[in-house]
Amino acid sequence: MRCEGWRRRGGAFTFGPVKWEQCNNDAVVMLEVEQGQVEKQPACLACWNEAVERRIKIISSVPIKFDVESAS
Length: 72
Fold this sequence. Notes:
Strand order of the largest sheet: 4-3-5
Largest sheet: 3 strands, antiparallel
Number of domains: 1
Number of strands: 5
Strand content: 35-45%
Order of helices and strands: EEEEHEH
């Protein structure tokens, strides 16, 4: 499952217009967050850490279980 985080590229001190790109990492956790409204979204560790650093209200976090044998 793919992470639902989005990254901002370009803008203020760089050349070109602002672009938003979806994170390419695999999700490892389902985060329930509140940003105006409550949403559940899959997230990778990098996006989860970014949410914590930006003080986004995290209501719950549940690890995503995956089949270890089929991953190898």
